[in-house]
Design the sequence.
């Protein structure tokens, strides 16, 4: 049975998120991303009231568990676009393969340039794929899974906050290309954000999310050691 | 009249919940079979899209719950993000590398994937 304490933290999270959501609707500034604001606000509350994270987690875990069902629900926009998607699948597949290789190697390269050790660089490498896959890739290569989880969340938030203005700035105007770019770079958090602005963009983002997760899982054990070999 | 409407809504929610859960469970099952190559939720997503495409599941059976979840999905990432509190030392030690890869790297990946796809789309 759910404890009262867990329930309080769930309600707190929902209330904080709803307020952040209203703030964004009112002011429409990209930095007011509800996910970012809610995380900062709740972290602030926990730290200032000296509540240990595992206590909050008791309630938070119920919400995290719902994530699985929410990802399944993305099957609906995917289906709604499936006529278009079927025709374009070879192209999408090719581009996601290129972008996944690029994402893995480019991240290692940038991290090394920023002074990270090879262990840290390889843990950051799968940051553009969804958390469970990123953690799996890192643990299979003896990296630091917790670091991957942090990088995945930051990457997602970065995409959710700046992704849409960045896409417009880069003159990526086709809704399909915008979805693909968001899903390839910022996985599920970016997909959740872009789905709110357009279901078509959301469907392509979900497609890119699925493909980049599977392709990265297959390629990472080859690409990551190879790139690390070049750099050492 | 009103009661019929309420019953219909409740049925729509129950059927969405049931189908989504069933897809997730089936996905988890296949994930184990595939040696966790892909997480169960992603396999469940593909399964749901496949069931809808084949006509075995009708859109009206899942629309209510799925639409709600997709709209509010962002909320579910909040506890995961708050989890960073548990790893502040890792974050502090590697802050520069994380910030560079997340900002510069993510922008580059987004640009590459978006430009390539847009180019391909205009060519064909």
Sequence:
């Amino acid at each position: 049975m759910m404890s009262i304490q867990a329930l309080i933290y769930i309600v707190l999270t929902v209330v904080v998120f709803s307020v952040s959501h209203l703030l964004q609707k009112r002011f429409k500034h990209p930095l007011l991303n509800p996910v970012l604001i809610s995380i900062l606000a709740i972290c602030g509350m926990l730290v200032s009231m000296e509540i240990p994270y595992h206590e909050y987690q008791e309630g938070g875990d119920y919400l995290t568990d719902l994530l699985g069902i929410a990802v399944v629900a993305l099957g609906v926009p995917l289906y709604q676009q499936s006529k278009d998607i079927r025709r374009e699948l070879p192209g999408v597949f090719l581009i996601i393969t290129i972008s996944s290789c690029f994402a893995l190697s480019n991240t290692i390269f940038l991290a090394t340039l920023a002074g990270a050790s090879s262990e840290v660089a390889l843990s950051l490498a799968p940051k553009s794929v969804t958390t469970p896959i990123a953690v799996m890739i890192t643990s299979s290569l003896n990296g630091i899974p917790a670091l991957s989880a942090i990088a995945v969340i930051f990457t997602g938030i970065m995409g959710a906050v700046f992704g849409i203005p960045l896409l417009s700035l880069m003159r990526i105007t086709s809704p399909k290309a915008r979805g693909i770019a968001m899903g390839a770079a910022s996985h599920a958090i970016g997909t959740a954000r872009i789905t709110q602005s357009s279901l078509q963009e959301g469907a392509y983002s979900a497609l890119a999310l699925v493909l980049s997760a599977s392709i990265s899982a297959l390629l990472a054990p080859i690409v990551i050691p190879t790139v690390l070999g070049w750099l050492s | 009249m009103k009661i019929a409407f309420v019953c219909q809504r409740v049925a729509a929610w129950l059927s969405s919940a049931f189908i989504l859960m069933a897809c997730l469970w089936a996905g988890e099952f296949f994930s184990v079979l595939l040696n966790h190559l892909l997480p169960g939720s992603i396999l469940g997503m593909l399964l749901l899209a496949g069931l809808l495409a084949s006509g075995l599941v009708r859109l009206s059976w899942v629309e209510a719950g799925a639409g709600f979840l997709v709209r509010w999905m962002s909320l579910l990432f909040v506890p995961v993000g708050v989890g960073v509190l548990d790893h502040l030392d890792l974050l502090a030690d590697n802050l520069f590398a994380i910030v560079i890869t997340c900002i510069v790297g993510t922008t580059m990946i987004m640009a590459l994937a978006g430009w390539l796809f847009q180019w391909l789309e205009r060519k064909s």
